[in-house]
Amino acid sequence: MLEQLYDSLVNAPVVKRGDYSYFIHPVSDGVPLLEPSLLEEISECILCYADMDVDRIVTVEAMGIPVATCLSLKTGIPLSIVRKRKYDLAGEIELSQSTGYSKGKLYVNGISEGDRVLIVDDVISTGGTLLVLVKALEDAGIKISDVVAVIERGTGSNDLRDAGIDVKTLVRVEVDDDRVVVEEVYSDNE
């Protein structure tokens, strides 16, 4: 399972941004090309792995959108996209997020108290965005049924678990000099 994801990661280009080695991948960056078969493989794995007894699928713009949309289409479960722009809709939840890459406000719409949600993300690095999102949704009376990210890099998943957030990931990677090393891949035997 996840052979295409594995192959695409080990063949992903790596660029330096300051002291940080950044891998370029279709799931995390949308370039060079996001193949439908890769989305299919990822979404099928998530359907087997995640608690799908939910009212909404939630993702933060931008790169969680392709995977979350695929899941929504396959299940008929509505999708709520956490946006970086304020809409001033009734019930809008505003939160401040800070990661190793950015700081800013995020806005949640289309989710109500009592809803059960699956949160889907492309990559967990620092875990900062997911930590703030989960806390804000829980404070609003929303039940987090599951949190799934396609790719895990760094300590963010462990930090989330230490904060009491059970997060599932499909692959764990690290960047070693100029290449991506896949350290762990989800198995349907787990």
Q: Please state the overall shape, judged from the principal axes of the Cα atoms.
A: globular
Stated plainly, the CATH topology is called Rossmann fold
Strand content: 25-35%
Number of H- or I-type helical stretches:
6
The SSE string, one letter per element, is: HEEHHEHEEEEHEHEE
Number of DSSP strand runs: 10
Q: Going across the major beta sheet, what is the strand order? A: 4-3-7-8-9-10
Look at the helices and sheets and give the structural class: alpha/beta
Query: How many whole angstroms does the radius of gyration measure?
Result: 16 Å
Average pLDDT for all residues: 93
Q: What's the architecture in CATH terms?
A: 3-Layer(aba) Sandwich
Top-tier CATH class? Alpha Beta
**Major β-sheet, in short?**
6 strands, mixed
GO molecular function: guanine phosphoribosyltransferase activity; hypoxanthine phosphoribosyltransferase activity
Enzyme class: transferase
InterPro entries: HGPRTase-like, PRibTrfase_dom, PRTase-like, Pur/Pyrimidine_PRTase
Function: Catalyzes a salvage reaction resulting in the formation of IMP that is energically less costly than de novo synthesis.
